[in-house]
Amino acid sequence: KKEEEVKPEPVDAAKDVVLGGDKDDNGCLASAGYTWSKLNKECVRVFTGIQLLPKDKPENETDAVFATYVLFDKTKNNAEIFLPNQDDSIILKEASKGKSWKNGAWELLLNKGFTLKKEGKVLYIGDGQIGANVSGSDDSEEIPAAK
């Protein structure tokens, strides 16, 4: 008796791809620009926060690649920073009423804009505009002074 030759059926790779199926462990849809905020306990678009740019930006690089974003909780007692190329955000606690927030080596200062330092060295600066140069809107808001 002759065995029949079994030929595999062609596989349609596109059939197995689920669009919008890139949710993280918290259910945030990364392809839509969402990431988990530990501070606010919800999916957020970090680029709607306060944009800080590197103090010493490499030449010929776009701002979006190196930008850091800051989000506050409703009380402005805590700040969350989202650093470029880092998956985990950092929570800073208010150290000086509406003027600075700290966590270990990290410090965020408010004085005519924001300055983010690590171990006393200025790494990022920003004018306090929410989503400036990223959201595509010319109607950026300034963050209200904390307390």
How would you write the strand order of the largest sheet?
3-4-5-6-7-8-9-10
Helical/strand content category: mainly beta
Number of helices: 1
Helix content, binned percent: under 10%
User: Overall 3D geometry?
Assistant: globular
User: What is the strand tally?
Assistant: 10
Rounded to an integer, what's the Rg over CA atoms? 22 Å
Mean of residue pLDDT?
A: 78
Oligomer: single chain
The largest β sheet comes out as: 8 strands, antiparallel, barrel
Describe the structure.
With 147 residues, the chain is mainly β. It contains 1 helix and 10 strands. It has one helix at 63-66, and strands at residues 35-37, 42-44, 50-54, 68-72, 78-82, 90-96, 100-103, 106-110, 114-118, 121-126. A hairpin with a 7-residue loop joins strand 5 (78-82) and strand 6. The longest helix is centred in the middle third of the chain and has 4 residues, at 63-66.
Produce the secondary structure layout:
Layout: E1 35-37, E2 42-44, E3 50-54, H1 63-66, E4 68-72, E5 78-82, E6 90-96, E7 100-103, E8 106-110, E9 114-118, E10 121-126
In short:
The chain is mostly beta strands.
Tag the structure with descriptive keywords.
147 residues, 8-stranded antiparallel β-barrel, two-stranded antiparallel sheet, mainly beta
